[in-house]
Amino acid sequence: MANEAAGNAIVVIGGKRYQVFSQLSLKRSMEEGTCSGSIVLSWPGADQFNSQGFVASDFVDGADGQILLDDQLAATITLDQRTSKGSPKSYELTLTFRGQCSEYVDGSPDHETGQENKKSPPEIMKTLMKGGKGQLIDKSNYTVPMERFIIAEGESIERACRRAAREFGLTFWENPEGNWVLQNMNQKGAVQGELRLGKNFTNWSTKRDMGPRFNVYGVSGNGVATDKKYGKVNESLFWEEFRKVNSKRKLRGLIDGDQTAESLKQRGQLEGDRRSGQGLNVTLRMSTWSDNNGNIWTASDHYHVVIPVDQIDDDMKLTEVEFELTADSRIATLTFVAEGGSANSVMFDAQGNPVIVQTPKPGATPAPPQPPEVIRT
User: Fold this and answer.
1) DSSP string, 319-344
2) What's the predicted TM-score (pTM) here?
């Protein structure tokens, strides 16, 4: 069993602190509405045969708790499932959990009319989340109201909130306190530090992908007609943006909701930035759960990632973190994506030509030789 030193990995359930368990995993992603993970406890099997009580009674499905890593709050959770199995040699209890906002991922809105009028996306989200455990932390400063927002039959609270937010260039994710944080796509936090190959990590993977990227993004939409807003100024709205990609690929999209020329532009830019980020992502395997500043790895933070051999030297956003603890390992897997269009500038020069060879800095280790070219005779 893993027995971390006090403060390294602690699970708090029912006000009681536990730090002895066989395995622990915790994953948090900005693309998902809640965190998820599992805890495994184990005992010698024969010891449980004559037990008259409920083993680990605090760890019951539906219980709320917290996970602390390196003495810092990593997640506020609700236990989803409790699965036990036994044999003459061992008794094992596996607990799966998700964050507090999982109730919004699973549940449908409790709304009398199914429609909201003249409210901004943050106001709509707060209405849909009313009565739940998780709260909305609004950092978007977005106050423009929609003329009308209709909740689709059968959709979850998360899905309705995604529509209300994303159609206006807003995005949200769950923080360690179990609340949703709503942010405008233009808001970028300070860089927390540098992560350099050979100094901060030795295991990594880099993925460059042309699939999700396009050189032209076009979006169209319409506004809800009113007595003051109707006709051509409100219909067949269109916005287009050109990006530096060595390809003649164009993407067109239809945006739902009550759109204006400005909101359509924000939505188009969000889609372009999201796809550019998917075009370049880096995964790092770290031996610590915290950065050099002592702060636990947190999705939505920014770091400067340097991998010379893959021509990575850029500020990147941490979009997914997975913590793992086993009997003999303690690691964190970090997934970074490029910010906005930076994936394209890393891969192509100003003329749109692929960058193949980069002049190394003085004193730098020479790059590996290029693959041999086949010479026709």
Assistant:
1) EEEEEEE-SS-EEEEEEEEE-TTHHH
2) 0.81
Q: Does 160 reside within a domain?
A: yes
Domain range for 251 is: 216-278
Q: Count up the domains in the chain and report the number.
A: 3
> Which residues touch 177 (CB under 8 Å, ≥6 apart)?
73, 76
Specify whether 263 is located in the same domain as 243: yes
Q: Are residues 33 and 86 in the same domain?
A: yes
List beta partners, residue 274: none
Which ranges of 50-203 would DSSP assign to H, the alpha helix? 102-106, 121-129, 157-166
- Is 151 part of a structural domain of the chain? yes
Residues of the chain by 3-state class (helix, strand, coil), percent to 5: 15, 40, 45
Final residue before a domain boundary, out of 64, 99, 134: 99
pLDDT in tens, the chain (377 residues): 333 333 488 999 988 898 888 899 999 999 899 999 999 988 886 666 667 777 778 889 899 999 999 999 999 999 999 998 888 888 888 999 999 999 999 999 988 888 999 999 999 999 999 999 999 999 998 898 888 898 989 999 999 999 999 878 888 999 999 999 999 876 777 899 999 999 999 999 999 887 777 778 788 877 777 767 767 767 777 877 777 766 678 777 777 777 777 778 877 777 777 777 778 889 999 999 999 999 999 999 999 999 999 989 989 999 999 999 988 889 999 999 887 543 333 344 444 444 444 455 555 566 666 676 666 65
Does 328 map to a domain? no
Burial class of residue 87 (count of CB atoms within 10 Å of its CB; 0-12, 13-18, 19+): exposed
Q: What is the DSSP string of 209-276?
A: -STT--SEEEEEE-PPP-SSS-GGGGSSEEEEEE---SS--EEEEE--SS--HHHHHHHHHHHHHHHH
Do 85 and 139 have their domain in common?
no
| Contacts (Cβ under 8 Å, ≥6 apart) of 294 | 70
Give phi and psi for 282, each to the nearest 5.
-125, 135
